[in-house]
Amino acid sequence: MTNSQTRATTWHEIVLATLKDNDVKLIVYVPDRVFTPLIKALHADKFFTTFAATREEEALGIISGAWMGGLRGAVLMQTSGFGTIPNALASLVVPCQIPALIFVSERGTLGEFNLGQALVYKTMRPVLNSLAVENVTITRQDELAFTVDRSIKQAVATQAPVTFILSPLLTGGKVFEG
Amino acid sequence: MSAKATGVIGAHNAKVMNRFDLTKRLVAQLKDEAVIGGIGNANFDLWASGQRAQNFYMLGSMGLAIPIALGVAIAQPKRHVIALEGEGSVLMQLGCLATVAERAPQNLTIVIWDNGIYQITGGQPSATAAAADLVAIARGAGIANSAWAADEPDFDRLAASALKGEGPSLIAARIDNKPAVATTDRDPVQIRERFMRGLGVRNQGSGLNNQ
Questions:
Q1: Model confidence band, residue A3 (pLDDT cutoffs 50, 70, 90)
Q2: Of A152, B98, B120, B145, whose CB neighbour count within 10 A is largest?
Q3: Are B74 and A71 an interchain contact pair (Cβ–Cβ within 8 Å)?
Q4: Chain B residues in contact with A69 (beta carbon < 8 A)
């Protein structure tokens, strides 16, 4: 564990520090309420180039190009956005063996109020598993740095994408506010 | 069906040219530029024009040539990057034009081959055959340096200007419905690996990446 990881005290500080420790410099996201503190911190840190794409598959295309050009990148999205990317996974990322780092804010479970999110949630792991895309669900902050750090290293070493599903147990999730 | 939209952009005045001819004209101007060939005929004719190590040939992920090119352009700001796309692919992912305008990479050029049909699937009409004007859309998205190529010499001139690196820029060309002259070999890993070596990302001879 590095200095920057041990100084981090919240889930989003740990994710940011672990990305930095692994030289992941390009962050392309489609906005998500739960990821807002992470996205704000990434924008504020000049180590990262951080911007929004208009669609999740576009974000995957951008970081795929960046990786082929020698720059590591990650995409951030919410669960419903995952529904837009199976074609980009199956016809670009997986067959080209691109170590895309995909962070998904998990919606659709543990108190979901939106049926649409709940249904996409049910498709996410079956899609990832049928494509043999590594996916890890993170529920505990004490396992976060180790899981993300080791999984990024494995993705790069084995030239394979990885999906980090950040559970509401870790992030607090999003609750109905009336 | 309405006539093709007219207006200040002038798509209606552009000559109908040939994709393979224009691809060869573009490639003849290149040195170490990266080229992303969009799915289908755009990358088939790129393949037929000569297999440069700096070319990436898409075999799926329709619509992602421009996003992939944007990623390469961000990763390698000193290298010019060109995306070649058919109009059907661009119509599928119009939002990326706004993203390109927002990022405004100096080293990115987008080339659109517009024949008004989904040629590879049987020639069904695309929206540009009726009214949509992709140069007007690109300008509206914020890519001010967007133009229709009036004829072959104009295409050569626009490409030479774009490659000077004051982009992002977009060149659209009306093309005929002739099929591509060859078909790209379908080996995604080999294509990706050769492209990375062509971009100087890999250590020659090393089995694993040096990233």
A1: low
A2: A152
A3: yes
A4: 34, 71-76, 79, 199, 201
Q: Do B60 and A72 touch (CB under 8 A)?
A: no
Chain B positions contacting chain A at CB under 8 Å are 34, 36, 56, 58-64, 66-76, 79, 93, 95-96, 98-99, 102-103, 188-189, 191-192, 195-196, 199-201, 208-209, 211
The parent domain of residue A21 ranges over 3-171
Residues of chain B with pLDDT under 50: 1-9, 205-207, 209-211
Per-residue confidence (pLDDT) for residue A54, from 0 to 100: 98
Indicate yes or no: CB of B75 within 8 angstroms of CB of A68: yes
CATH classification for the domain delimited by B11-124+137-143+153-198, as one of 3.40.1190.20, 3.40.50.970, 3.20.20.70, 3.40.50.2300: 3.40.50.970
- Mean pLDDT, range A81-105, rounded to an integer: 97
Query: What's the pLDDT tens digit per position in B166-205?
Result: 889 999 999 999 999 999 998 999 999 999 999 999 865 4
Task: Choose the closest CB to A58 out of B59, B67, B201.
Answer: B67
Overall number of domains in chain A:
1
> Does A134 map to a domain?
yes
What does the pLDDT read at residue A6? 60
* Predicted pLDDT at A8: 75
In Å, how far is A12's CA from the nearest CA of chain B?
25
B76 and A69 within 8 Å at the Cβ level: the answer is yes
Mean pLDDT across the stretch A142-147? 98
Which chain B residues contact residue A159 at CB under 8 A? 209
Asked if B208 and A57 come within 8 Å (Cβ–Cβ), the reply is: no
**Strand pairing report for A134-138 and B34-37:** unpaired
CB contact under 8 Å between A53 and B63, yes or no, is no
pLDDT at B109: 98
How many residue pairs bridge chain A and chain B with CB atoms within 8 Å of each other?
Answer: 131
